[in-house]
Amino acid sequence: MSTPISNLRSLPGVKVDNFGFGMEMRRKLEIEVMKGNMAFRDAFHAMLQSVQMPLADCLRIVQDNIQLDPHFLDFYYWAKRCNIPIVVLSSGMTPFITMLLESVLGSNPENIYVVANDVEPHSFGDKTTGSGWRIKYRDDSAFGHDKSLEIKPYFGLPSGNCPLLFYAGDGVSDLSAASQTHVLFAKEGLDLVDHCRERGIPFIPFDNWSSILDTMQGIYEGLSRAGITGYSNVV
């Protein structure tokens, strides 16, 4: 079985909307990606480059302004008890994600693995000297981090060895992964739901982690009664 955590969509939103070129421009770029007119990696790079402030300040702002869904803690402890690993498969950047997880769950949270982009030094021209940064993409795909590439190897395993994979997402960075999982949770009212409906991709709508936990507990208990074991996780 595989499980989802939030893709932490709000991390870049806080920075871009309040300290970059704003929500209106961010939304325009997201729509262009949805229409296929722009690569996600280019749109996301433009968003982050509009936030010209030192990395330490960005980390502090995120830490002060972002909170995980409170129901995710219930999900985390349940998955930990059941030995179900959680993978944060994100288009965001590892320093931001690990900082947020550690601030909520404590240092080195167990049972959570982060697979994301990174950051690297970069000058903001005359505005900074040595404290600038930019995103360092994980791969050369149009997404910068093609999440489907992290999932596909599981489906190449011999019959009976592939874990049941669950994925939870909400936005344009999740488009490539939407059809590459056994069970997809898509957050209501956001872009991934529209994408799935347009393409006929089955999904379970969710509003918060309470409903995801209820669904996964039901599946887990049913499989356990049937004597089926072997669980994994993708977010």
Protein model, in words:
By secondary structure, the chain is an alpha/beta fold. It is built from nine helices and six strands. The protein has helices at 10-19, 23-35, 40-49, 55-65, 70-81, 94-105, 148-155, 191-199, 209-225, and strands at 86-93, 112-121, 133-136, 166-169, 183-187, 204-206. It is globular, with a radius of gyration of 18 Å. The chain starts with 9 loop residues before the first helix and ends in a 10-residue tail after the last helix. GO terms for molecular function: phosphatase activity. InterPro entries: HAD-like_hydrolase_phosphatase, HAD-like_sf, HAD_hydro_PyrdxlP_Pase-like, HAD_sf. This is HAD-like domain-containing protein. Keywords: Hydrolase. It holds the Pfam family HAD.
